[in-house]
């Protein structure tokens, strides 16, 4: 990296400061004195440079210095950074009784995920404990110089206007790889701008999520530091005044929107009293129990080079795990929890609302006119899905949990009985409202049944709109808004080939053990196993694009591999998790699959093939095919 003139000396100064802070010179003097005492007492030999370096290396001082300097040289002197260190946790009382894990033993872990101004970080997993041993540092870029004035560096006053918080999400992963959202916290980092010598230590109390959003789950010790150090800090009065002003501004905007929403709802009920029972959702609670306008959960989201097409985006969303928000106690009530995007993608699973919000955001990013629909499916179960409106008036429904698409063809209730009406293929029954990041429409047609709905959103006799200005005042990203910024999506960290091999080996062992218990021997046919690959690739291609290809070659290859007088049976199955035992147990529940795995007969040969398809974040589609041939 070629530094602009004057910046080289800035970097030297930083390194010098860092060495002074570590008191490197003092430590070298101590080692020198100690080495001379130990080595040179008997005959006054010369102490060479090599001896000194060896002594420094043995005591770990060189490693310490290199670690610190590597960190300092990562700092581009033309940018401002916030160095956030997590220095352990305490009072995670739920893990008070947890025994210390033995070396090599698999245990539950905590992972901390951070998002700040389009940058994402993840801590090393640490064992769950009452005092979890977090020791991680994250270098967050606050500001990079514009190309204009090359020598100008932003000062504390300018940084005070950067109101993005650091969003921290704590995830617990159990011994089976299942994830739980523990806490979601927005850290106000700007207090460091008023800290003496630019360093501040904070104890952050994390509260639970959902029904436990008022309960403390633990405390994290956090240290904040500015790099390069600020030449002049602000007074605490200035920062506190700024925070108060921002809070007042947000509160006032939210109050005005609430007044408007109440007025809109009154007008909506005046159209027809039965509207009271329609699913018109204006606000929804996030994981921290905060009520936010539904439009704020959506934002056009670009996937960069991670996803190429809208249908591939729909496939990605469908392989993120589905899990309803946990509810304490019975009664069948649904606990409402619309997660912020970071909490959803870090946990890698969520409710149908989380899936629909993410899919709608991705489709908007691809330039489509997309909306989230709130309504019901069969048996009156409340549900959300996504709808896109084509320029030619075509309405397409997208089911975010499966990736399926349905073209909507409305029934005309005024047609005479002889006219054949289209049969709806989609599972949706009623629809109360549709919304995206800029628009909100309440359904005011005589019936809210989806099959007779006309989606002409510009016709105010069918859809009552909300003021775009009112929505913009509380939902637009940027200054003085309580809406968390959207994080970028990250590439997958899963090695698909290695994971496929691991799962396949584990499944072979499980099948052999299962057959051994039944008194059956197992002979694997590696060639037949390999021939199953094209079928699995074709299944995934069909899910991602809607196009099936390559079936003829697969069938031809299988016919050649199975001699005359032999029978072939195959069973494909699809999962979104990578737990071999859980997958095997599910497979055995299918009578058809169990028949293959427990096959008896003459010259029985078994085959299994696993193919993992990795998607952004840690989402994956896992296809498994069991097969057998026998005479």
Structure description:
By secondary structure, this protein is of the alpha+beta class. It is 32% helix and 24% strand. It contains 16 helices and 23 strands. It has helices at 7-22, 24-40, 49-58, 61-73, 156-160, 236-271, 310-319, 341-347, 352-365, 468-475, 496-517, 526-531, 533-545, 551-561, 580-588, 591-597, and strands spanning 79-90, 109-116, 119-122, 126-127, 135-144, 166-173, 179-187, 199-207, 216-227, 283-285, 291-293, 321-322, 349-350, 370-377, 382-389, 395-398, 405-407, 428-435, 440-443, 463-465, 567-575, 605-614, 620-630. The strands form 6 sheets. Strands 17-16-15-14-18-19-20 form a 7-stranded antiparallel sheet, with helices on one face. A hairpin with a 4-residue loop joins β14 and β15 (382-389). The protein is flat, with a radius of gyration of 30 Å. Mean pLDDT is 89; it is low at 147-151.
């Amino acid at each position: 990296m070629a530094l602009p003139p004057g910046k080289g000396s800035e970097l030297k100064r930083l390194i010098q400061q860092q060495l002074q802070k570590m008191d490197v010179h003092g430590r070298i003097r101590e080692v020198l004195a100690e080495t001379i005492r130990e080595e040179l007492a008997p005959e006054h030999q010369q102490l060479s440079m090599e001896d000194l370096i060896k002594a420094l290396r043995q005591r770990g001082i060189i490693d310490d210095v290199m670690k610190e300097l590597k960190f300092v040289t990562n700092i581009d002197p033309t940018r401002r950074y916030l160095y956030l260190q997590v220095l352990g946790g305490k009072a995670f009382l739920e893990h008070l009784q947890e025994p210390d894990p033995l070396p090599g033993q698999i245990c539950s872990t905590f992972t901390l995920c951070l998002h700040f101004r389009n940058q994402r970080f993840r801590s090393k997993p640490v064992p769950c404990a009452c005092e979890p041993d977090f020791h991680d540092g994250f270098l967050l870029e606050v500001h990079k110089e514009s190309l204009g004035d090359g020598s100008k560096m932003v000062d504390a006053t300018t940084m005070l206007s950067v109101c993005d918080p650091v969003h921290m999400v704590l995830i617990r992963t159990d011994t089976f790889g299942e994830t739980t959202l523990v806490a979601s916290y927005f850290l106000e980092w700007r207090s460091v701008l008023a800290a003496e010598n630019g360093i501040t230590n904070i104890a952050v109390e994390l509260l639970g999520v959902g029904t436990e959003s008022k309960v403390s789950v633990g405390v994290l010790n956090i240290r904040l530091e500015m790099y390069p150090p600020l030449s002049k800090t602000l007074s605490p009065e200035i920062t506190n005044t700024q925070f108060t002003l921002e809070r007042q501004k947000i509160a006032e905007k939210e109050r005005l929107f609430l007044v408007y929403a109440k007025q809109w709802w009154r007008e909506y009920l005046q159209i027809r009293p039965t509207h009271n029972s329609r699913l018109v959702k204006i606000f929804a609670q996030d994981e921290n129990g905060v009520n936010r306008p539904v439009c704020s959960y959506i934002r056009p989201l670009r996937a960069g080079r991670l996803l190429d097409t809208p249908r591939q985006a729909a496939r990605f969303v469908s392989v993120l795990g589905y899990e309803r928000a946990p509810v304490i106690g019975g009664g069948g009530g649904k606990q409402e929890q619309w997660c912020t995007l970071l909490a959803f993608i870090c946990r890698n699973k969520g409710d149908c609302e989380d899936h629909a919000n993410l899919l709608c955001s991705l489709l908007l990013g691809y330039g489509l006119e997309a909306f989230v629909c709130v309504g019901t499916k069969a048996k009156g179960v409340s549900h959300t899905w996504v709808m896109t409106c084509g320029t030619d008036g075509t309405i397409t429904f997208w089911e975010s949990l499966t990736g399926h698409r349905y073209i909507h063809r409305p029934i005309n209730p005024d047609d005479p009985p002889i006219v054949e009406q289209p049969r709806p293929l989609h599972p949706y029954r009623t629809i109360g409202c549709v919304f995206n990041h800029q628009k909100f429409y309440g359904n005011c047609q005589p019936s809210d049944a989806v099959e007779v709905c006309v989606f002409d959103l510009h016709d105010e006799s069918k859809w009552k709109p909300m003021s775009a200005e009112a929505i913009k005042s509380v939902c637009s990203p940027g200054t003085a808004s309580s809406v968390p910024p959207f994080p970028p999506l990250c590439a997958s960290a899963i090695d698909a080939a290695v994971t496929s091999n691991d799962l396949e080996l584990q499944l072979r062992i499980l099948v052999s053990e299962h057959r051994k218990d039944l008194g059956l021997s197992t002979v694997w046919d590696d060639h037949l196993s390999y021939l199953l690959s094209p079928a699995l690739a074709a299944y995934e291609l069909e899910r991602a694009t809607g196009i099936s290809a390559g079936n003829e070659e697969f069938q031809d290859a299988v016919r050649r591999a199975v001699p005359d007088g032999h029978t072939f049976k195959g069973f494909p199955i699809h999962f979104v998790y990578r737990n071999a035992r859980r997958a095997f147990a599910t497979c055995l529940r299918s009578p058809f699959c169990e028949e293959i795995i427990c096959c008896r007969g003459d010259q029985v040969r078994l085959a299994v093939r696993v193919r993992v398809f990795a998607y952004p974040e840690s989402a994956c589609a896992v296809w498994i095919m069991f097969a057998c041939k026998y005479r």
